[in-house]
Amino acid sequence: MRNGVLAITRDGTVAEINAEALRIFQLKRSPNAVGRHFSVVLAKHPDMVRVLHSAFELSHLPNRAELRLKTTGKVIGYTLSHVRDERARSTGVALFFKDLTKVEQLEERERLRDRLVALGEMAAAIAHEVKNPLAGIEVMAGLLKRQAAMAESPDAQSLLNDIISEAKMANQIVHEALEFVRPIRLQVEHTALADVLQSAVALAETKIPRRDITLEVKVEEGLPPIQGDHHQLCQLFTNLLINAFEALEGTGTVRVSAREGVLEEEGHGPAGEVHSTRSVVVQVADNGPGVPRELRDRIFNAFFTTKPQGSGLGLAIVRKVVDAHDGRIDIQSGASGTCFQVTLPVSGANDWFVPRPGVLARTSTDD
């Protein structure tokens, strides 16, 4: 069965638990689960234990309810049913459930795309109104700076330098916002991840000085090329590297690794088959302070940032590029640092892909 099944008796003893239930709850296969109290078997999932504890007290049990397991972050959809004897007395409870985590992620992508449409219309309108005044401010401040230099007024020159710097920063934010809300049109070709990572490292080092940060890059030999956009992938990993460098504040270690893996996706058919796709897995890990748990669900949101001078678009663009390549990005963070894992299919089938005829490989980027 593609659904998890857990049956308990009236006294709370586990009468049956199938392999899918063990997988979803991340429990080891063991014959000792049957015959033990469910609160012991599910000790790692107190939220599920509370649901089962109340099962015998309710006359109407939840049907097609959803629950997010706090310990694993998985979202499950479940139905509880009473098991009755010939006298209609409740002798136990059966829990039928399904892992809806992938479904939730797909729905979140759709919600993100809807928000981007509205954001794009607003950003385009604002950008055209703001860019012209910013350009005028920068030009006029430059003229005043020349006059201040002739008048030998260092204080005035310092203030004008600040005005020009702030105008350039505001103009850059407007530019990034416009780039973010535009639909991605991927120029797809056979792309070697080793070349992409090499370009990303070089570009990240020009934007953020490494200082005392140690950078380790390890690419598995024989890594297959993927169908992707070299330029967009370079931007993706550049942003992840910049994020890691900024988190370390000049001291620490960043490890980049690439290996072949498998991307598993659940089908939409009645049997809920799991399809395995050959993929490439890239990890960008640092040993910095980590991301607080309460912020992990928000770091990919547009304009969310914890940096004083950040635009909040770096990781949002990363998520957008990963989605455009039909990939997946996961984050693991704790006291020992943060690891972003990007999984990209070797062969993509996204409708946004625009093949470039006659091009087999690209080894450089014109960033």
CATH class of the largest domain: Alpha Beta
| Unreliable stretches | 268-272, 349-367
Inertia-based shape: elongated
Strand order of the largest sheet: 2-1-5-4-3
* SSE pattern: EEHHHEEEHHEHEEHEEHEEE
Please estimate the helix content. Answer: 25-40%
Distance between the termini: 50 Å
Give a quick account of the main beta sheet: strands, pairing sense, barrel closure: 5 strands, antiparallel
Kindly name the structural category: alpha+beta
Task: Assign the CATH topology of the largest domain.
Answer: Heat Shock Protein 90
* Overall pLDDT score: 81
Strand fraction: 25-35%
Task: Give the number of helices.
Answer: 8
Rg (CA only): 26 Å
CATH-assigned homologous superfamily of the largest domain: Histidine kinase-like ATPase, C-terminal domain
DSSP E strands, number: 13
CATH-scheme architecture of the largest domain? 2-Layer Sandwich
Number of domains: 3
Task: Tell me about this structure.
This protein has helices spanning 19-24, 38-41, 46-53, 101-150, 154-181, 193-207, 230-248, 314-324; strands at 4-9, 14-17, 65-68, 75-84, 90-99, 186-191, 212-219, 226-228, 251-266, 274-286, 328-334, 337-345, 353-355. With 367 residues, the chain is α+β, with helices and mostly antiparallel strands. The strands form three sheets. It has a five-stranded antiparallel sheet with strand order 2-1-5-4-3, sandwiched between helices. A five-stranded mixed sheet has the order 7-9-10-12-11, covered by helices on one side. Strand 3 (65-68) and strand 4 (75-84) form a beta hairpin. The radius of gyration is 26 Å and the shape is elongated. Mean pLDDT is 81; it is low at 268-272 and 349-367.
